[in-house]
Amino acid sequence: MFTSFALFSAVFFVASGHMHTTPMMRWCVLGGKEYEKCMDMKNAVDKGAEKETINMTFSCVNGTNAEDCMMKIKAGSADLVTLDGGDINNAGMDHSLVPIVGEDYYNRSGLEGASYKAVAVAKKSNSDITFKKLKGKTSCHTGAGKTAGWNVPIGTLLRMKLMEQDESCNAYVSAGKFFSESCVPNVKNKYSSATNLCTKCPEECSSSTGPYSGYNGAFKCMMDGAGDVAFVKHTTVGDVGADANQYQYLCKDGTRSASWENCYLETVPAHAVMTKSGHTHNAQFKSLLLHLSADYGTSQTNTSDFQLFVSFKYGGSNLLFKDSTQKLVDVADKNTYQLWLGNDYLQDLEELNSCPTHSPISNISYIFSIPPIFSIPPISPTSSTSPTTGFGEINKPHLTVVMVSLLSAVIATVTSQ
Questions:
Q1: How far, in Å, CA of 164 to CA of 184, rounded?
Q2: Which of 140, 160, 170, 409 could be cross-linked to 230 through a Cys-Cys bond (beta carbons 3.0 to 4.6 Å apart)?
Q3: What is the pLDDT of residues 297-322, one digit of tens each?
Q4: What is the pLDDT of residue 21?
């Protein structure tokens, strides 16, 4: 009887779906280079000490682009992906994804190092280029909708009124009219009618994996002479091993500097690993990632073993994580996309979708050339006096001026209320 009960219990256990208790952790990757690195991360998880404390089945899932990965996570066919600020906003707003860990670039306590500077870089020899004189120039961007390469510089140019927002309320149209030519990788997937925004990298109009894509790619674009300015992050010059003496940063006040420390466009939120809100295994995902950061991060200097923040051995850069990352950190109470991005960056994103404003009264005043109400022409002392009004006779042209001026004052008063 005991044997029968045990057999029944085993059958019930399998039928109830509890035989497989190991949670899955499926990472969404972009391209073959990321897939190769992801598989090495899987091997590190399978053989590492983490397997003993956090038992998870790790796998890699191919995605065509960041949006595709967001959709896969929302649909339940993937679990995790690392995104930059612009994509974090879309992931949270459109797909209900949340950040669980962020990249720390300074190895500081808490979340102090989980940010970086968005900068504009130009060749030192190209001395005519300043941030206030970019109209009509050529530009290199990390990618359409990316934080340092698009959202911050274009948002800043619009906010400072250096770039005029188009009547279409579309920043891509505005930028296309502002720059003569550009390289904005993947722009056709964001704005299909883009023309001159990818003439400097035609093979990357609908791709974000070409030689001019990403931070290093945007800098290479400028370095090769395809653009006058590159919009990147503050560590890019050092990351690519360029001679820093040959380049300068463009400051918002129109000056230039050899150092980014006092010459950057904005402090922006770090990249973050995103997953589905309320996922059953989010705590385990977070724990495993923090363990991987400690064991295979910057402290792991054996190049023959897996290194979480090294990409050159796969023939790429910033694969899965930015190569400048020092460690991964818990997002703590910044556990929504709004809290992680912060108000300043969210305002940048709003600026990109703003519409031009007009002043109807100022337009009317300009069209009709209405003079101030206190500029009524004086009455001639030689005029005859009216027996009914006691005022000198006002000729018809003067009367017209008075009436138009009064109308202007009435319109201005009503509009101001």
A1: 19
A2: 140
A3: 999 999 999 999 999 999 998 999 99
A4: 67
Q: What pTM was computed for the model?
A: 0.72
Which percentage of the chain shows pLDDT scores above 90?
Answer: 71
Contact 405, 370 (CB under 8 A): yes
pLDDT at position 363: 44
Find the angle CA(60)-CA(63)-CA(65) to the nearest 5 degrees: 140
Tokens 């992050």 label which residue?
233
* Contact status, residue 200 vs residue 212, Cβ threshold 8 Å: yes
Q: Rounded to whole angstroms, how far apart are CA atoms 350 and 323?
A: 30
Report whether 104 contacts 329 (CB < 8 A).
Answer: yes
Write out pLDDT tens, residues 335-345. Answer: 999 999 999 89
Q: Taking a C-beta distance cutoff of 8 angstroms, is the pair 290, 278 a contact?
A: no
Cα separation, 196 vs 240, in Å, equals 27
Burial letters 147-157, b for 16+ CB under 10 A, else e:
bbbbbbbbbbb
Assess whether pLDDT exceeds 50 at residue 19.
Answer: no
Q: Give the span between the Cα atoms of 404 and 413, in whole angstroms.
A: 14
Question: In 10 A of CB 108, how many CB atoms?
Answer: 13
Q: Which of 265, 261, 206 is nearest to 232 (CA)?
A: 265
